Amino acid sequence: MSISPTFQSVKLSSASIDLTNGIETSDYFNVDLKRTEGCEMDACFAAFDRDADGFLSIGEFELICRALFRNDRGKIYGVEEKQLREIFDIFDLKKDGLLDLQEFEVCWNRWIKVCTRPRCAFLIVDVQNDFISGSLNIKQCAAQHDGSEVIEPINHLLDTVTFDAVFYSLDWHPVDHVSFIDNLHMREVDESSPVPQEEAKVYDTVTFKGPPSLKQRLWPRHCVQDSWGAELHKDLKIVDNAIKIYKGTNPEVDSYSVFWDNKKLTETTLSSQLQDKGATDIYICGLAYDVCVGATAVDALTSGYRTILIDDCSRGVDLVDIEKTKAMVIASNGVIVTSSQVKAMVEGRDRRPELGYKLALEIKQSLKSQSNNNRK
């Protein structure tokens, strides 16, 4: 979307942005940002300060966004007027309608640096035998997707893109797991259940008696610990130093997300591992798109990560639910891409405004918490 004419507008080419004294601001987003301290920060600020009044106006900030949010071919991504104003206001700490050098440093260090030099984790969800050719082969589900089709594009990404961390998740269920339909007799179904125990079939959702009561979708027995079905597919590349995350290990609660079980009772090790790696961005794909992949993406967004779903590296159970998953991710400022777009994004050459906006909202929350703590 175009920016309102009430903002200071400048006609910019797709190749470069020429500001003052022949300085191209796009150069600032392709240098070693660790060196932009002291006088170098002053020089950068001056490059964006077109009228040299010692402040950045909303119009000058628009120039920053136009330089920042573009793909590797120089195409500029538009930023919605409302979002542009909201991002500007986050860094306008003094609330005077302008950014001074001190405020710009916060913007540069906490926002621009991450947008241009993200730390990226690749999370490959549940590419296991049972989901591809075993007891819960998703080809037998409504969407009739072939789970094996994710392996080649995932392997290509592992071969061609340098991620800061790679994770593989595995469904890892005990034999008495609550999700298995053949274990239905082991637990009492609540009277409020939408499907009574004697009529329940595979893929139905029942409510087990509590406390607390538990809604559970029933699946065929799958991914039992230490079984062939629980193994990662033999054709999936396993890279050195990758981290495996096991989920669904509690017999009494299912775990779609790689972050949490479905009742948010127990956290996996994923959050702490991501923090250790300093990850800012998570690229998520695998099986099944509308179940474990989708649940993981939602939790990644809720946890504050810039989240990217890789469409052609994911396959799902139900076409309608896959579309719902996509809509939910987009509505939460996540991005859905194809594998061919990942390398440029990981390398900071393709910078999406949705991810910039998501980061700005997280910074806003962090600044608010910091301010509240300072008042105590």
TrEMBL record:
EC number(s) per entry: 3.5.1.19
A molecular function GO annotation: calcium ion binding
Domain of life: Eukaryota
Gene Ontology biological-process annotations: pyridine nucleotide biosynthetic process
Claim: Hydrolase is one of the keywords in the record: yes
CDD domains linked to this entry: EFh (cd00051), nicotinamidase (cd01011)
PANTHER family reported in the protein's UniProt record: LD05707P, PYRAZINAMIDASE/NICOTINAMIDASE
The protein's name in its UniProt record: nicotinamidase
Species, as recorded: Fopius arisanus
Lineage: Eukaryota, Metazoa, Ecdysozoa, Arthropoda, Hexapoda
